[in-house]
Design brief:
With 217 residues, the protein is of the alpha/beta class. It contains seven helices and eight strands. Strands 3-2-1-4-5-6-7-8 form an eight-stranded mixed beta sheet, sandwiched between helices.
Length: 217
């Protein structure tokens, strides 16, 4: 075993994760953290999809750096994760997700539009073994996972109409610590899946109120 993964060997089964090709759609606040954490736990193949470039507002909320300004987020993130693991195979797609976009067998949906989530789910639901959707608004996060029959039936129920989405002020949408926590919960569900343990289909956390709710199918 690669020594870098030795201290997590009983938590992240090496033989299972080596069969995973992870696609992260959206490498903003949550998606960038997901990509970093997936690399750190040893996923061998990572596919990053995003059309956006780094803006000044992304530095505080998404963990990008001053030198990254105006560069594609997928390129910057790919360079960063390669520094963690030189052996990682990274593919990038500087484009919006399309129905024809190829994906791996594990998909992490980290977009900021409910309409886009529906589009992604309709495109990949029959192609993937594990699907995890991370959502966030200010200090509230939600992680929804679909990886078995019941959770796959449940997930579409969370795709409400776009006009029902909460529209908070632009100065209270994103915090990097909430994004990190959301990514951590997404990876926790992923490692449960790898260990063939029961996965929580719907987790909602309000950091300000210190509340957590775990839903069942």
């Amino acid at each position: 075993m690669d020594e870098r993964f030795s201290r997590q060997a009983d938590i992240v089964p090496r033989e299972r994760i080596l069969d995973c090709k992870a696609t992260v759609i959206g490498v903003g606040a949550i998606g960038r953290q997901v990509a970093i954490q997936l690399t750190a736990i040893g996923v061998p193949h990572l596919h990053l999809v995003d059309f956006d470039h780094v803006e000044i507002s992304n530095l505080a909320t998404q963990g990008y750096m001053q030198k990254d300004l105006e560069r594609p987020k997928v390129d910057v993130t790919a360079e960063f994760v390669r520094e963690i693991n030189y052996d990682l195979h990274v593919e990038v797609l500087l484009d919006r997700f399309k129905r024809s976009t190829p994906v791996g067998n594990c998909v992490f949906c980290c977009v900021d539009s409910i309409t886009t989530r529906r589009h992604i789910w309709d495109a990949v639901r029959d192609k993937v073994n594990f699907f995890c959707d991370g959502r966030m608004s200010a200090e509230v996060l939600r992680v929804i996972t679909a990886c078995d029959e019941k959770s796959r039936q449940y997930y579409p129920q969370t795709l409400f109409a776009a006009e029902q989405a909460h529209a908070g002020p632009c100065t209270a949408k994103t915090t990097i610590y909430c994004a990190n926590i959301a990514a951590g919960f997404m990876l926790a569900q992923f490692t449960k899946y790898l260990r063939m343990l029961p996965v929580d289909p719907d987790i909602q956390i309000n950091l300000l109120a210190s509340e957590i709710n775990v839903g069942v199918c």
